[in-house]
Amino acid sequence: MPIVSLATVSKAYPARTPGDGEVIAVDEVTLEIEKGDVFGIIGYSGAGKSTLVRLINALEPATGGTIHVDGVDITALPESALRKVRSGIGMIFQQFNLFSSRTVKANIAYPLKLAGWSKADIEERVTELLAFVGLSDKAKAYPEQLSGGQKQRVGIARALATKPAILLADEATSALDPQTTHEVLDLLKRVNREQGVTIVVITHEMDVIQTIATKVAVMERGRVIEQGDVFDVFSAPQNPASQRFVGTVVKGVPSPAELAVLRERHAGRIVTLSFRDGDSSQAQVFLDLAAAGLDFELVYGGINDIRGRAFGHLTLAIRGDGAAIDRTLATIGERVEVTELAGEEAR
Ligand SMILES: Nc1ncnc2c1ncn2[C@@H]1O[C@H](COP(=O)(O)OP(=O)(O)OP(=O)(O)O)[C@@H](O)[C@H]1O
Ligand SMILES: [Mg+2]
Q: Would you say domain 256-342 falls under CATH 3.50.50.60?
């Protein structure tokens, strides 16, 4: 049973000015998050990611569809029962949202106090959390005395304090530099692996998805336009918007500008072949080309690693008889993905 499941969930906000249409922030989204997933949601600004998060943790009601959290239909619950649902979900934010007038220790203790834990239990839990996030020496510091990465580690400790089963991270690394981003993502990986917490990561950076997520959903204008295992979406994105996101991190696919340069430098047809792990057909591709009497040259390429699985792209300039090239590419296309961009599409 999925830990979070959304069925045709929508959220419409009233029109901003009378006469305008309502704003459909989330539009019939259907997705399932399994226990233990690190589920990434990626999309450009305004795609509806944060709204989706507020629906999952019941901060706002959906205007359509049903949302199950841990088997409970939260769209049918009264406010009093929603508090319990929310206590099972931790949340971290881009701007950390720490209390600046409280120490690190008091920030982490805050949700435990609200939940009515005893002083001794709070003391023990906070000590444990500080050790887990590597900030035992900062218990008495104030947020302003911490770096961005340290602040987010406090945010993570606070979010985990009451032992939620789900952690929602909305652009949690967007305010951090790349090195610090990776440290925080490593910590989130440990949260997932060592504590079994299901994590939903909202981001506009594909790099974050590549580093940490196991599943991904791509959002555009309120809709989920593509979703699946990170490896599948990264190695063969189906939708143009997904292809643009994937193109920002995947190695080996020439950009339109690079393709134009390749065309200038190399005679013949420029063809990109995409290989996935498990393909044992790379050698056969070259044998097929040689057997057809075609002359070819490798002009671009790269291999990607997604959580230990590889996929790659090779771009070739192929010269020879046009019909022979067509026939050979058709044969090759039965085993690996073949992309040949016409001159116009390349621009
Ligand atoms: N409370 C609200 N009232 C009216 N419209 C809203 C409200 N919250 C969000 N919206 C609109 O819903 C759409 C989705 O917003 P949302 O904040 O979910 O996007 P996002 O994907 O999180 O963007 P970003 O990457 O910039 O954070 C936007 O058009 C936004 O203007
Ligand atoms: Mg947002």
A: no
